[in-house]
Amino acid sequence: MSTSQPDASRPSEARAGDDRATPDDLLHTRTGTEVSPEDLVLAAGRDVTPKNLEWARRKLDEEGPAALDKLLP
């Protein structure tokens, strides 16, 4: 049984294209739908609690949907 990786036989020049990062203009954090306080709490890695939901509501009131964009890549 071989332990080599499937791409190990490919020349390094051919693999170089596989290692590129996705350009920022192709990354999307929202689907165009409204951002809920629950979305913001979860994106921040917090538990959904009344205290965290209140924090998210205030943040959404101040920053709008951009609040989620600031948390996600």
Structure commentary:
The chain is mainly α. It is 44% helix and 0% strand. The chain has four helices and no strands. It has helices at 12-16, 37-43, 50-63, 66-71. Helix 2 (37-43) packs across helix 3 (50-63). The longest helix is centred in the C-terminal third of the chain and has 14 residues, at 50-63. The two termini are 40 Å apart. Residues 10-28 have a biased composition (Basic and acidic residues).
Q: DSSP helix count?
A: 4
Helix content: 40-55%
As a whole number of angstroms, the C-alpha radius of gyration is 20 Å
Number of beta strands: 0
- In terms of DSSP E residues, the strand content is under 5%
- Structural class category: mainly alpha
* Cα separation of the termini: 40 Å
User: Helix-strand pattern, N to C?
Assistant: HHHH
Outline the low-pLDDT stretches: none
Assembly state: single chain
Largest sheet: none
- Mean pLDDT comes to 77
Described by the principal axes of the CA atoms, the overall outline is elongated
Describe the structure in brief.
The protein is 44% helix and 0% strand.
Considering the chains and any ligands shown, give keywords for the structure.
73 residues, 44% helix, mainly alpha, 4 helices
How is the secondary structure organized here?
Layout: H1 12-16, H2 37-43, H3 50-63, H4 66-71
